[in-house]
Every structure is written in C-alpha cells, then in structure tokens.
Specification:
Strand content: under 5%
Shape: globular
C-alpha cells in the first residue's frame, strides 16, 4: 500500500500575499497612529458625522422663521440663539457643515489626483516630457486663485458648490505636484527602482507598486493641506459675498451676521459659533499635519519616541538636566589596604 502524499502547502513555502498587503497597508497608515494625528482625526471625524447626519441633528430647518424670537440669545428652545428674522443659528451651523466638508474633501481629492499624476510622472520621466510637466506646474503656481474663482462664479447666477470645489481643486494641485516631483526624482535612482526597470516591469506598475507606497506620507500631507486651503477659500468667498448666501456654510452665516450688524451690536451667538467651527477644523487638520510631519521627519520621530519613553519612566521631558542614577563610590587603594 503506497502512502498518500499531502498536497497542502507548507507554511514556509506558502505565499503570504494577504499578509504582505496587510503589512504594507499598515505601514502606509502608520503616520496616523501618533497622539496628534489621532486627536486631529477625532475632531475631523466629528464634523464629518455632523455633515452626514445634519438632517437628523438639526432641531429646525435652517430657513424656518420664528417672528416671535428675533435676535434671541441662547435659550432652551434655541441653543445658539436666533438671527434677525428668527432663524435658528444652531440649525444653520449644522447644515453649513455639510457644504464645508463636501467642498473641502472634493477639492482635495481633485487636487491630490492631479498632483500625483503630474508630480510622479514628471519626476520619473526625463527630457522634454519632464520639463514640460514642470513648466505646467510652475504656471499653476503663479495663477491667482481668488480672482479666478470670482470670475468663474460671476458667470453663473447661482454657482453650485461642486463647481466651486472643482475650481479650488484645479488651482490647488501645483504645490503638491512640486513636492512629489522632487521626491520621485530622488526615488527613481534607488536600487529597487533600477531592479524593477531591469526586470522589464511597465511604467504603470513601477509607479503604482514601487513608488506610491513610499510617497504615501507626502501625499497625505498634501491632501490635508489642500483640505485646509479649500475650506478657508470657501468660507472667505462666502463671507465676501461671491458665493450666494442661499448656499449654507459657515462663511455665509458670517456674511449674514456682518450685514445685519451682529458684530457692532455684540450678538456673539450669531458669529461666534461658525468662527469657532472654522478654528476647530483648522486645529484638527493642523494636528493631522503635525502627526504626519513627525512620522516623515526622522529627527522629530526619534524625539517624540524619546519623550514618550521618558514620560513612561516618570521623568519630566522639560527638565534641562537629565536625572542620573547615583552610584556607589569606587574604593581607592588606601581604603582597600
């Protein structure tokens, strides 16, 4: 009787494709595991949830008018007070979050995709093709964004937020492309890129598999910076009246408050909540960017790890002098004799 041979692959010889991709994915998002990034993502996640469930969280419709509660300060009925015609400020702030989040993320997605394509391709290629893409990036670097958006918005009677997000994305990709191009030019001469090129791998696979995982930190930082710029651009355009006031976001609330004299009459419940929301989301994005910077910069990363290790040991990281454990004096020749 012949023994049957097992066809089950051994552990040592079995390919671990899923484990490899899992480890790559984990290392790519390791930049978000430090306390600064976690705090920033928590604040940003709160605003994203508010934008998603705005219809459920808002106690009233943002356009509902209560003529008996004009210029009313915060109360149990209107937690953040009312406007000059009796609209609920809290409902307007909640519904305004949706426009801010949509424009910020959509503009960042558009700008980041263009920056990846132009920056990585121009950094990997050589010759006139690389120089042409670099010249295109330089042109978009000097295009004034605010006047261009004002011109585009003036063409439409009621420009939608998607159009504003598209324009903000098209004028906000150049800085990210410049940074990615410089880093790609540094990576294209590395040994693993040369080996992939010698094996005859196509350009698409070299860029997507070999280069992009090493550029994830810069891509994430560029994305976060573009979100910040897009949100500030949207609120600025809304505040100065370029975007119609019928489109609710935090900038339009400030526009209405300024037009109705809320700043002069110290009706803080009308202009302070949207201002604090803009500051809070700015702090959240800054914390995420600081966390990414700490991950990318080896000096900051080692300093942060050293500080956390000192805190675990109960030492004060702000002490100018490091505590040294006392040692017993060594015996001299006289005491030994």
């Amino acid at each position: 009787m012949t023994p049957t041979t097992s066809t089950t692959p051994t552990t040592s010889g079995a390919p671990r494709t899923s484990g490899t991709w899992r480890s790559r994915l984990g290392s790519a998002f390791a930049m978000f595991r430090n306390p600064k990034s976690i705090a920033g993502l928590s604040i940003l996640g709160f605003f994203v949830l508010v934008a998603i469930f705005a219809d459920v969280l808002a106690p009233y419709s943002p356009t509902k008018v209560d003529h008996t509660a004009r210029f009313q300060p915060p109360s149990t009925q209107h937690w953040l007070g009312t406007t000059h015609i009796g609209e609920d400020v809290l409902s307007q702030v909640i519904h305004g979050t949706r426009g801010v989040i949509v424009v910020g993320f959509l503009a960042a997605i558009i700008a980041t995709l263009i920056a990846i394509v132009v920056g990585v391709v121009s950094g990997y290629l050589t010759g006139w093709r690389s120089e042409s893409l670099s010249a295109l990036t330089n042109v978009f670097l000097v295009i004034p964004g605010l006047p261009l958006i004002i011109i585009v918005a003036s063409v439409f009677e009621d420009p939608p937020l998607l159009l504003i997000a598209g324009v903000l994305g098209l004028i906000g990709w150049a800085w990210g492309a410049r940074v990615l191009r410089a880093q790609t030019m540094s990576l294209r001469n590395r040994d693993f890129i040369q080996a992939a090129r010698a094996n005859g791998e196509p350009l698409r696979r070299i860029i997507t598999v070999e280069m992009l995982p090493n550029l994830m930190a810069l891509i994430a930082a560029s994305f976060v910076g573009t979100v910040t710029a897009a949100i500030l651009g949207l609120t600025t355009l809304s505040y100065i009246g370029v975007i119609p006031v019928t489109t609710y976001n935090w900038g339009t609330i400030l526009n209405w408050a300024g037009a109705q004299g809320a700043f002069r009459q110290n009706q803080w419940w009308w202009y302070l909540p949207p201002g604090l929301c803009i500051a809070a989301i700015g702090v959240a994005l800054s914390l995420i960017n600081f966390g990414i910077d700490e991950y990318v910069n080896p000096r900051l990363r080692s300093a942060g790890e050293r500080a956390r290790a000192m805190k675990k040991k109960g030492l004060n990281v702000n002490d100018a002098v490091t505590a040294v454990r006392p040692t017993s004096p060594q015996p001299t020749k006289e005491t030994a004799s």
